[in-house]
Amino acid sequence: MQIAECELSNLELQIFSFGFEIPQSEFPACGRQASSEIKEMNRYSVGSILGILFLWELLVRWLEIPKFLLPTPTTIISYIIAKIELLASHTLMTFLEAGAGFVIGSLSAIITAILFLWYRPLKEMFYPYAVILNSTPIVAIAAPIVIIFGSGMGSKVVTAVICVFFPVLGPTFKALASVGATEMKWMDSYHSSRWQKFWYLQFPFALPQVFASFKVAWTLAVIGAVVGEVFGAYRGLGFLIVDAIYIMDTPRVFASIIACSLLGLSFIGMITLIEKKTIAWHISEERR
Fold first, then answer.
1. Do 249 and 196 fall into the same domain?
2. 140 φ, ψ (degrees, to nearest 5)
3. Residues 22 and 93 grouped into a single domain
4. Could you give the residue ranges of the DSSP H alpha helices within the chain?
5. Of 170, 196, 171, which Cα lies nearest the Cα of 183?
6. Predicted confidence band at 23 (pLDDT cuts at 50, 70, 90)?
7. Which residues are CB-neighbours of 255 under 8 A, at least 6 positions away?
8. Is residue 1 in some structural domain?
9. Angle of helix 203-231 relative to helix 153-176, nearest 10 degrees?
10. Which of 242, 247, 285, 248 is nearest to 94 (CA)?
11. Taking CA 87 as the corner, what is the angle to CA 86 and CA 89, rounded to the nearest 5 degrees?
């Protein structure tokens, strides 16, 4: 299908800006205009961030706000450079806790989704409890977990597992159960076993939803690990934030928050890369 004219809505431009691309062979008239508008939007985004930082710096200096209340961006950057080893060691601990929770929680959720798919009475029995536990704030759950499992790494991993489990379970089960009846009948015509249906049809069909849930789950894993560290830890970004609050070291608080954000964003980028390599054949990737 060839499109002679190019009129991109704001929603389409937002999709472009998040990395979705339309092949120029399909839309020859839109390709160059879309590319130029994406670059223009990126310039505006960078410009707005720099403008906010400049205004922040200017207002703090002009109003003479004390550093322990609100440090300037230059003060925060200087602290990060000066304490890069301290931040790196604590970030590594949070990464290990969140990573272990992410792996355990994701695998447990996928296995549970498969069991719910194959044995529906299990879903009817246990899914309501999963919904109740998922609706409980992690801040309320983290405190007893730290009391039960101690202030070591184990309690943070358990907290991260709880944060990861439900965001992966729901989309995975829904995607596995959403395979069309026509495709299932086609598999039945070849006398396929339940495992063959799962491995060759249902699981590949669910992969885009699984990877999408992974991106959300990793962010929640970092949040769970940090919340656990806030309630009791000797290392980690959450511990670093609490310790800085006690001594009014506000630059360290902002530096730790930036480290948390970078930790979340970097791993999401890795998941996106793995997704593109794993399901490049999927129609959802062909439409990007």
1. yes
2. -75, -30
3. no
4. 10-17, 28-63, 73-82, 84-118, 120-134, 138-149, 153-176, 181-189, 194-197, 203-231, 237-246, 250-278, 283-286
5. 196
6. very low
7. 76, 79, 80, 83, 87
8. no
9. 160
10. 242
11. 65
The C-alpha atoms of residue 229 and residue 56 are separated, in whole angstroms, by 30
Amino acid making up residue 146: V
Same domain, 256 and 206: yes
pTM of the model: 0.77
pLDDT digits (tens, 9 = 90+) for 61-115: 898 888 888 899 999 999 999 999 999 999 999 999 999 999 999 999 999 999 9
Instruction: Tell me the Ramachandran region of residue 20: left when phi exceeds 0, alpha when psi lies from -120 to 50, beta otherwise.
Output: beta
3 found inside a domain: no
On the CB side of 143, how many CA atoms lie within 13 Å of its CA? 4
Task: Give the residue numbers spanning the domain of 135.
Answer: 75-286
DSSP 47-75: HHHHHHHHHHHHHHHHHT--TTT---HHH
> Residues 56, 82: one domain?
no
AA identity, residue 158: V
In a domain, 245, yes or no: yes
> Do 55 and 111 fall into the same domain?
no
